[in-house]
Amino acid sequence: MLDKKSVLTKINGWDVYFIVVTLAYITWRVVVFLRRFP
Amino acid sequence: MLAIGYAVYWLELYVLKAGEGVTSPLAWVLFCLASVAVIGSRRETISKFLMEVKSELSKTDVWTKVFVGLGSLIVLLIFTCAFYAALLPPHLSQETDSLNYHLAIPRQHLILNSFQLIPWCVSDLFLLPLNFALAPYWFVTVLPNKFPQVLFLAGLTLIAAHLVRTLGKAHAVSLFLIVFAIFGSHNVGIQMGTAMLDLVMCYLFLAAVDSLLAGQLGMAVVEFTFFVWSKSFIPVQMAVIALALIVVYFIFRQWGFSVFKTTPKYLNQIKGGTMVFFILSLFIGGPFMVKAVYYSGTPFFPIAPGTLMINKNIDMNSAYWQSVMKSAEFLLGPGKDGYGHGRSFLAFLKHLWLIAVPEDEVNNAYDYPVGLIYLLFLGPFVRKFWDSLRNKEFVFIPLFIILYWITWWFGSQQTRFLYIPLVLMFISVIVWMKTPSKIFLVVLVLALFLNAVSIVRAHKNDWGKSGEEVLRKKDLSIVSLSRDYTKDGRTDFVRLNEHELAYAQFPVILTKKKIPFTLAVEEK
Is the N end or the C end of chain B the one with fewer CB atoms within 10 Å? Predict the structure, then answer.
């Protein structure tokens, strides 16, 4: 299954990107949600 | 479905005369027969494909199997919600356009048995072939149904998966990735199970690309023709993108990029396809453009009204003409620019993040958020596009995505108009990616889960209710009025001050003047 030529499996930096983007997105949504409660 | 529906609509209008706004089951019967014939003829290919997918999946590691299985379960949950929602009549806040004109205009024409301009109706100047083609399916039930739209959602998913397979000779896991990406996108989730038509338009474009790649030029032209004439700005947008692509092609060729070569056979196919496109357009877009030119002086209302004044009876000083101009000004002014945060360079940089997230409660300045999936795909897309430029490769689909995005930026910045570039972006990245990392699979399934929660929250109030129970009060009163109108055997026009008329089974004259919905009518 694993293809060594694949850019996104070879560069672990992409995993960091996916995690950072996901955490940033969830944090943003939590902050917007909490703004409903003054 | 559209070709059958479009032909049947004109039959219903002039021959079968669906005078109460309820159509015969003819379109559905013909569509079901055609579907059975097509699926039957491709039975072996479908069965072979499913066996291949099963075999490829069985060779994957446990991690992949678990997340593909989990993701598939969430997709099933989302689709079930959309399917259930599609069985109810339109009533949701995100489908007011449908109540306002997608459904209301074709129904009023059926009631009047006439294609002439509905004298008070601005939206009747729009390009409406898609609405007319779906009307025989919508109005087969007394309370209009939106079931065709959910079939297009299924079709969009299958076409996208087929494109991934065709373009990348992709592994079975990649097919699941594109399904997860579509079902995990928040802006897709918002329109699933609704009567809106943006996903139908996205399907049409991708289906045309898929048919073209499969060598089915005739089918590609039919699909593309319905797509081009589906909204007033699409012909203009497609012409701008095509011109820009040609310019970029020649510039890149001059700069020594590796570009595809045009052969005489290829050019002949383009010429043939273009000719068929124009002939089909006479029947599909033609009637609507002739009407718009006659009553507003432009084939693409609200763009450039008054430029082709063939109707010498129009008095430029009349209240009617002033209402035409004011409506066009509104639709191209506040109506178009009422979204986003402006068009400065800073606004451009900010929108790359802001279109994905809610800004206030659940929505944002771009109408509704596109969600996490887009952010996950944006990075790899930009990186791979940059790589292709450095390697001097002319990459057609990514260039199309970027040009589409630029035209969107200068048009109405609503995320629902980004379905096509977004799905193409997902396809491009998945094709490039070949095999996903484990982390990517996890975050993709997480995004799917977040979208499933939003969809369940959006629709749960309707569960267990009948069609009439979900209707808004004003729609219920129109339904009740329709029953009394039919019972009393009336044939006169009814004066109403409500422009959302999908449920009206009688001819209406709108009494409330409201730009950009109503035209000024001279009382007789």
Answer: C
